[in-house]
Amino acid sequence: NLFFFIIHPINPHGNRSSKTFKPKKNIPEGSHQYELLKHAEATLGSGNLRMAVMLPEGEDLNEWVAVNTVDFFNQINMLYGTITDFCTEESCPVMSAGPKYEYHWADGTNIKKPIKCSAPKYIDYLMTWVQDQLDDETLFPSKIGVPFKRNFMSVAKTILKRLFRVYAHIYHQHFDSVMQLQEEAHLNTSFKHFIFFVQEFNLIDRKELVPLQELIEKLTTKDR
């Protein structure tokens, strides 16, 4: 067994510590996206994650992916925020997910050629980059009636692919710390929700998920 496994069959947003790695990205109250987020939270509360990730009837796929991407950013932000003291230049000189997988950072604009850096540095680059995408109104429009750009889905896929790497790093390098903090149920619930979501809409290539393949199989076979 790769990881000790507990799942909370509850809404993963309840009673969390308020420490986040980056500022939380808020969806404006009263907006349609806020209503969608509330819908997502209500269905999550039912404990049926396969149902919870499905596109609600009559809703726009881009908007559903946008709302959930913001939500996953906030969840990972909080999860990583709980273990930043353990993820240091000394403990994690490279960004890895176990001995076989190492990630080098490039964002295509500021850093074009992939650079090898420590995990905390990589995750800082990654979360800052994601934040910049989420704050870009042309990519993630928060106003009703503003259309999504044509390339929205490919940007969302890149965001989710990169967010997966933070989960992979936490599981492989910091699971002991997560257990010490008694956060494993929160981590497992969040990751299970994430995996069901990306599987439902085919948002991450299978090969990208290999570092946590064993865990993913364990999570998803329980709910077939």
UniProtKB/TrEMBL annotation:
Sites where the protein binds Zn(2+): 87, 92, 169, 174
Protein name listed in UniProt: MOB kinase activator 1Bb
Keyword Flavoprotein (UniProt): no
Keyword set, alphabetical order: Metal-binding, Zinc
Signal peptide interval: none
Domain of life of the source: Eukaryota
